[in-house]
Amino acid sequence: MKHLLLTILLIGFQQTSAQVFDKETIKNFDNDEKRINLVILSEGYKTSELPQFRIDAVSFTNALFSQSPFKEYANYFNVHIIKVPSNESGADHPGTGIDVTEPKTPIKIVDTYFNATFDSYGYHRLLYYEIDGNAANNTQAKIYNVLADNFPTYDQGLILVNSTVYGGSGGEFPMASKGVENGVSATEVAIHELGHSFANLKDEYFPLDEIYFNEAINMTQESNPSFIKWKNWLNGNGIGIYKYYTTGYAANWYRPHQACKMRYLGYPFCSVCKEGIIEKIHSLVSPIESYTPVSNTINSPSFPIDFHLELIKPNPNTLKSKWTLNASDFANDVDEVSILETDLNTGMNTLTVAVNDATGFLKVDNHDSFHVYTVTWTIDNSALGVKDITSEIINYNIAMYPNPSSTFVNFKFESNHDTRLKVDILSLDGKKIKTISINNYQTNEVDISNLSTGIYLTNFYSRNALIASKKLVKN
C-alpha cells in the first residue's frame, strides 16, 4: 500500500546528510499502515511562521475532507505535516509571465527551501518548484530527501506555500499557495491536482498540448454510448459524452461532464471522477482493519466462538459483508458472528467473510476491475472439540472486460495469495451456462458468442465461498 521510496533512490541520496524536521499528525485513525498517508510539506514559512503553517495545513485538510468523495471516505486517510523552515517568507516572483502584463505582482526573489516560483513556464499563476522544468536546482531530489528522511512510507505528498498570491501546480507533488482569486481559493488548485497525482484523473478542460491526451478514467476517444467507460453514468448527474473541442486533435477526445472540478475550480467532482477516486482508495487500503480470532490465539475454545471484523467504514457506511460456513450462507452485513458446536462438521470447517463496498458512488460494471476483501478461518473440529483455528486475509482485484461484449470476455484477477477462483456464468433464472477456473495473474478469454443477447450473472468463488457477483451484458 505504501509509496515507499525505491531503494535505488535512497541509495542515490545516501551521501546527502539526513535532515530531520519536526513532524506532526493533524488527522489520525491510529494505524498508518492501514491508512492512506497524506503528507503536507511547508514551503516559504520561516521558523517563526511554522505555527501558521500548521493552521494553514489544518484549513486545507478541512477543505479537502468537506468535499465528496473525500468526505465520505475520510476514515481511510491520515494526514501528517513536515515543518520544513525556509530562510525567507513567500515565493519567487521573477516577473516573467507571458500571459499577464508584468509586473502583475511585485518582483522579488526569496530564499525558500523548495524554490517555489510563480511565472513558471511563462504562466503567472503557475507556482512550481522549477521555473522551466530544467531542474537546475534539483528541487525534486530535495523533496524526495525530505520524505525519505521524515516519512518514507507516504502515499501522497503535497506542498503548501506561504504566499497570498493565487497559484499552484500539479505533478507528482502538487503545490498551492494561500491565495484567493475571483472568490476561489488556491486550495481548490491543490484538490484538483490531487485528482491527477492521487487518482490519475485527467483535465477536462482543453489541455495545452496533445501529450496530455490519453485514455483514462475521465478521458477517452470512444464515443459509442454502449462502450464508453462511463456508460453506466450516462444521462444522470450531468454525465454525457462531450468533445474537448470542435476542431483539431481535441475534437477526437471526450470528457464526461461540463462542470467537474477537473475542468473548473470551485465545482464538485463529477460522478465519474468520484468513482475513480474511490476505486483508487480501495486499491490502496483494505476496509478490513483487523479481525479476531487470528491464528494460534485460541486454545481449546468453548462454544459459542465469536468471529469479529473491525472495518474502516465510510460515512455513511456502505460496506456489505457475506459470511459463508462450509460453502453455505451463514450471515449477511454484520461485523460479528457466533459459531455453535452444532454449526460445525466433524473435521475441517471453513468460515469465510467477503467484504465489498456497495456505495452508490460506484457503478463499476463498466470498469476494468472491482475489489473484494476476504478473511477465511479454518476450524479443526474433532470429536473432542475444536483443536485449532487458523486464519488468513486475502484481497482480490478482479477484472472482467470488455463488458458489454458480443464475442469474448476476459477474466483476470490479482491477489496477495496464490489461489484460484471459480467463475460461474448464469442466466437470470439461475441456470448455469459456463464454469471456468482462473489462476492468479493469468487472463482467461471466454467465448460468449453463442449466448443469447441479454444480461447474465457472473459469480466468483474462492474455496467454494461466493465472494463477488457481477452483471455481464451480452450484445
UniProtKB/TrEMBL annotation:
<dbReference type="Pfam" id="PF18962">
    <property type="entry name" value="Por_Secre_tail"/>
</dbReference>
<feature type="domain" description="Secretion system C-terminal sorting">
    <location>
        <begin position="400"/>
        <end position="472"/>
    </location>
</feature>
<protein>
    <submittedName>
        <fullName>M64 family metallopeptidase</fullName>
    </submittedName>
</protein>
<dbReference type="InterPro" id="IPR019026">
    <property type="entry name" value="Peptidase_M64_IgA"/>
</dbReference>
<keyword id="KW-0732">Signal</keyword>
<dbReference type="GO" id="GO:0008237">
    <property type="term" value="F:metallopeptidase activity"/>
</dbReference>
<dbReference type="InterPro" id="IPR026444">
    <property type="entry name" value="Secre_tail"/>
</dbReference>
<dbReference type="InterPro" id="IPR024079">
    <property type="entry name" value="MetalloPept_cat_dom_sf"/>
</dbReference>
<dbReference type="Pfam" id="PF09471">
    <property type="entry name" value="Peptidase_M64"/>
</dbReference>
